[in-house]
Amino acid sequence: MVFSSAVFIFAFLPVTLILYYVSFHFMHERCANFTLLVMSSIFYLWGGLNNFLVLVTIILINYFLVLLICRLDGLGRRALFLLVLLIDIGNLVFFKYINFLSDNLLLFFNKIGVDLQISFPFGNIVLPIGISFYTFQILSYVIDVYYGRVDVQKNLVRFALYVMMFPQLIAGPIVRYKDINSEIENRRISLEEVEYGVKRFIVGFAKKVFLANTVGKIADAVFSQGGSNSFLYAWLGAICYTLQIFYDFSAYSDMAIGLGGMMGFHFLENFDHPYCALSIQEFWRRWHISLSSWFRDYVYIPLGGNRKGKVKTYLNLSVVFLLTGIWHGAAWQFIFWGIYHGFFSIVERLGFNRVLKKVPTFFSHIYTMVVVIIGWVFFRANNIKEALHYIERMFSFHSNDLQNYAIVKEFSPLFWLCLCVGLILAVKKNVKGQQLFKNISIPLERGAYILLWLISVMYLSGVSYNPFIYFQF
Amino acid sequence: MKKGLSKFSTIKGRSIFLLCFFSVLFIPLYGGFIDRFFQLDGVVKSREVVSLNYHTLASGEYQTYLNSKWEDNFPGRVFLLKARNQILYSALGESPNQNVIIGKHKYLYGSDYILYEIQAVPPETEEYFENLGSSLATLSELLAQSGKELYVFITPSKARYFRENIPSTYMILQADYGKTNYEKLCECLKENGINYFDSNEVIKEAQEHNEFKAPLFHATGIHWNKVWGEYSAACFLEYMNSISKYDLGAVNVSETKSLKPIDPDADLYSSLNLLVPPKGDWYAAKMDVVKAGSDHPNVFFRGGSFMGQSLSALISCGIFGENTHFENYYYFRNNYKDYQELSGFTAYEELNLDQYVGEADIVVLEVNEAAIAHMSWGFIDYLLAHPEYTDAVWNIASESQEEWGNAKIRFEGVRDTDLNPWGVTAGLICEDNQKYALLNPFSAMSIEFDQETQETIRARIYPEVAEFSDGAVLRVVIRDENEKVLSEYECKLSNESEWTTVFSDMIETDNRVTVDITCLNEEGGSDSCDWVIVECIKSN
Question: Where does the pLDDT of residue B225 fall: very low under 50, low under 70, confident under 90, or very high at 90 and above?
Answer without folding.
Answer: very high
